[in-house]
């Protein structure tokens, strides 16, 4: 059994990770440390051992690993202190504020032999698994255009996410997830990037962004995060050489329209469009297409904590590899740069 101490008993630490860990056999949360007294009280009320200082937690020999779930700017110092104290580390995303910080952390992980693994949990999201499956198995042919969006209307939540010094902003928040999914799926290096960050709400950090990414294999992607969108666009819109798929939301509503017959280009039936007629924009002929529902994909790998346990105990390969995490941070740096 791996005993885990949580550093940062806030939203993610106290709820998400505790619930996730409860489902796994090989790991258990035993204690917590937070700089805020009320969060320590919450951990105590939840039956955990609480530590008044970071060094108290790190010197406890019964703790095998720590989960870092603090604001982003302190991930680096906490990860390095934990590993040099002989603890393995699970770190919330974004792993670090820059590739430079991550390089320092990976060096310490290599030197100490302690595992450093980043919680890129959205690799297990069903909507993503469906699109990844489409990319690999090609039911609508080769995907050549991938649009991945998340839209909300509530602005930037909380306190520290509004501030640059804490690593706030949406590119470092939801952006990390969407870009991680994209790079995990598309098996080709990034060729070109252009991007636009949004500051509609007047914060010092971005409240959303649009990035256009072209891969060397020709795949083009649009990744968008918005926090001022009172009407959402679909979570995924992807085009393959033989069809189009749309997943509207996390409830997996959506559809796939696949070309299954020849389109009779000479006898297209026009539709009335505004004050004119159009054949070009007529719906696809029912004889030439089939509409299919979105079917839940079976996850092909075990969950995050099962993998973490296997990496620590059985030296298994991590599903979230540090070089992948680095590639995402490098892309984020590129997006910040080109959007200036
Ligand atoms: P939060 O503000 O709810 O909680 C952060 C906690 O860390 C607070 O209780 C705060 O007091 C504590 N803290 C701050 N500095 C500390 C320090 N030096 N030592 C110990 N504790 C400290 O924030 P959150 O929403 O839980 O986010 C925490 C981390 O989790 C961030 O890195 C965020 O990006 C990440 N996150 C990941 C996901 C995901 O889906 N993977 C979702 C939300 C947040």
From TrEMBL:
Signal peptide stretch: none
A Pfam match: GFO_IDH_MocA_C3
GO molecular function terms listed in the Swiss-Prot or TrEMBL record: nucleotide binding
Record-annotated GFO/IDH/MocA-like oxidoreductase domain positions: 131-245
Domain Gfo/Idh/MocA-like oxidoreductase N-terminal: 2-119
Gene3D superfamilies per record: Dihydrodipicolinate Reductase, domain 2 (3.30.360.10), NAD(P)-binding Rossmann-like Domain (3.40.50.720)
Highest rank taxon of the organism: Bacteria
Protein name: Dehydrogenase
Organism the protein comes from: Vagococcus bubulae
